[in-house]
Amino acid sequence: MSGTSLVTARERALAVLGGEPDDATLRRYLHGIAGVDAVGLEQRAAGLGTRSIKTSSKKWALDRIISLVDLTTLEGADTPGKVRSLVAKAMNPDPADATTPRVAAVCVYGDMVPYAVDALGSVHGDPDDGLISVAAVATAFPSGRSSLEIKLADTAEAVANGADEIDMVIDRGAFLAGRYGLVFDQIAAVKEACRRPDGTSASLKVILETGELVTYDNVRRASWLSILAGGDFIKTSTGKVQPAATLPVTLLMLEVVRDWHLMTGQRIGVKPAGGIRASKDAIKYLVTVAETVGEEWLQPHLFRFGASSLLNDVLLQRQKMASGHYSGADYVTID
Amino acid sequence: MSFLEYAPAPESRAILSLRDSYGLFIDGEFVDGRGTPFQSISPASEEKIATIANANAADVDDAVAAARRAHDRVWSRMSGRDRGKYLFRIARLIQERARELAVAESLDNGKPIKESRDVDVPLVAAWFFYYAGWADKLDYAGLGASPKALGVAAQVIPWNFPLLMLAWKIAPALAAGNTVVLKPAETTPLTALIFAEIVQQADLPPGVVNIITGAGDTGAALVGHGDVDKVAFTGSTAVGRAIAKQVAGTHKKVTLELGGKAANIVFDDAPIDQAIEGIVNGIFFNQGHVCCAGSRLLVQESIHDEVVERLKTRLSTLRLGDPLDKNTDIGAINSREQLDRIRELSDAGVAEGADRWSAPCEIPENGFWYAPTIFTNVQTSNRIAREEIFGPVLSVLTFRTPQEAIAKANNTPYGLSAGIWTDKGSRILAVADQLRAGVVWANTFNRFDPSSPFGGYKESGYGREGGRHGLGAYLAPASVTRAGRPAPRAVEAASAASAAAADEKPARRTRRTTKPAKKGAAK
């Protein structure tokens, strides 16, 4: 996969902003975007959550959820063995049912990328081809509190080791301090670090960590900022801060993506991550995507779930739809 | 397969156990009506639901007499606390039977099940809970100590929110110590009749609530009945005007909640995505069959094109169809008559030069349907900008300054509701202050709460429903009652006793004059 080239991203940003992406210009632009009414946003999200997805629609939704999952392990205790186990699960989620689709990607810390690539072997590749990508968190994940040099080195190393996707964190401190130019420059620099020697580039997911941005207005501005700076995906959370992904926050980010597409024709991905554990909740996200940006967004290059325990719940639901009765936690595998 | 073509998700009708025919609910029993019975049909399929009794003048007499007896002998003598227990019990029964009521409402009215389930029925329960709490606190209703009930209330309600309008009428009336005779609209009597079963289930003393069905003549006979003390009507301005004339010069107190042509004002700094939702909710909620619907969109000229574009995109995602499908957003128009009126006014809009756009959606073969429609290029002098359409039709007008927005919003014979969309708090307050509308919503629309008074200016009626104000419409200050209004009494035998009882302060009364709320009340 290849992300947008940096040159076009920067040119586009300059055209949209009408000037250099410094603090003042960005502030003028981001604060000129219509505000968000929290009550109305949450009401709309709740309304979308009441859609009743049954029978054939539910069956389709469950399979689609699996193919949109970034199966994740981000623990201090991660080992090569744990990563191999995760990869095995990613390749064959339900050993009892060969029709189960594969997940889109595995998501690991940067130093675990070689083990993931190795374990995937020939299955490593583009999810559009039925293969599995490797995503690595980078840039001093989850806090992002280190120098730019270290963040860039972190990113470059993961890409060099074979990561297809980089999940970076923005500098929330800089954002909250109003230093939009700094946040922009860092995203742009990380984007540059995603380049491979052959000219292709790893896809860049920009984590806003919405739980630390707190207000919906901040989330909307950070979404625009990340897209302007060249992010291929905007992602809600690291999973290390509560609240992580929520339906209203995801809806809001999808609205930004929709507006950006209307304005530029470019399609940006959205990844809610953290806290989505039940199939029922994941289906609400599918509905929200389909009714906000359109059904075409329900594909691995435009929408992902960052999750670990979600997969097993979807598998249980899937088994239930096939057999007509619920099984139990021991009928799906732990990874 | 397209995911957005969600598989059918119909709510089951199995929970309903409808009878083939329903009588009148008078004095705690279902009795036959003496008029010619009529059919209630489902507007979504035109299938027959049940045969409904028709009350003639003699039936109205019976119902009012039953209400009078119940008022004088039982309800007015009962302590507020005990009345409250009955109301709490009714509220809980409504919650218990919520699904059944929602299915019945959607079947009979045509509104989507998601609205009857998530809006109508929860609000109905909330209304009874709220006024149940007031029943023993009437001293604090703002009319001084020991206010008195008015007596027998005649209540006539419309078809757009059949059960909710029943709750708006019955809950405050009963809390204040009145007894009621209620007539639901002839196209939507079903949930009122199920409510009658709930009244029986709650063991409410006979005659406190009477429900009679019929058409306009039944309503006229009820409103004009000499032994009625209070008239409460929700419906069209034309009928409201006739009622006002009919009761003029009598002792009857009146509240009227009539039509509207609400302005939904969107400023250029509005939270745009939420404003779009608010516009949709304002006019397409309940197929636009809402007296306070935001049927006139006043949008600042600078963002007009963007708003209309976004609105069209959004409307294209609305699902029109089977009201009982849980994913339906737009249900059926309540009757052929109403559909004809919507079509007539809509065609008039085109004839007057406005541009009509309808959301692309498949219209079912049977039943009454109208696709969500927007008119742009509408002038203030057009009929579609003046007259209440009472359907899923939005007229878009523009303004340049806040002053112009206020002037255009107020330039209507109605004055029921209005909406303001802006990120600027001070502008909300300044504009709301100058709008001549009973309800003004800021950055939201069509939100209801039992503690909030609702009612209109000008041709939108008078009096308020909901909150403390709504309670006041069913009470008189103690001194006024003592001075003695010339109340005609149907039940002479009870009058001496009841007059003595009426002078007794309910707050001081300790002796119970009727059986108290019994087992099950504290469930």
Automatic annotation (TrEMBL), chain A:
Q: Pathway it acts in?
A: Carbohydrate degradation; 2-deoxy-D-ribose 1-phosphate degradation; D-glyceraldehyde 3-phosphate and acetaldehyde from 2-deoxy-alpha-D-ribose 1-phosphate: step 2/2
* GO BP: any one term: carbohydrate catabolic process
A GO molecular function term, named singly, is:
deoxyribose-phosphate aldolase activity
Kindly give the InterPro entries that the UniProt entry links to this protein: Aldolase_TIM, DeoC, DeoC/FbaB/LacD_aldolase
SUPFAM superfamilies in the record, alphabetically? Aldolase (SSF51569)
A single Pfam family it belongs to is DeoC
Keywords (alphabetical) are: Lyase, Schiff base
Q: EC number(s) in its UniProt entry? A: 4.1.2.4
Spell out the GO cellular component terms annotated for this protein, sorted alphabetically and separated by semicolons: cytoplasm
Indicate yes or no for the key word Transport.
Answer: no
What stretch or stretches form a coiled coil here?
Answer: none
Gene3D superfamilies to which the protein is assigned, alphabetical: Aldolase class I (3.20.20.70)
Under catalytic activity, the entry for this protein gives: 2-deoxy-D-ribose 5-phosphate = D-glyceraldehyde 3-phosphate + acetaldehyde
Q: Which family does it belong to?
A: Belongs to the DeoC/FbaB aldolase family. DeoC type 2 subfamily.
From the Swiss-Prot or TrEMBL record, give the protein name: Deoxyribose-phosphate aldolase
- Organism of provenance: Agromyces bracchium
Q: What is the lineage of its organism?
A: Bacteria, Bacillati, Actinomycetota, Actinomycetes, Micrococcales
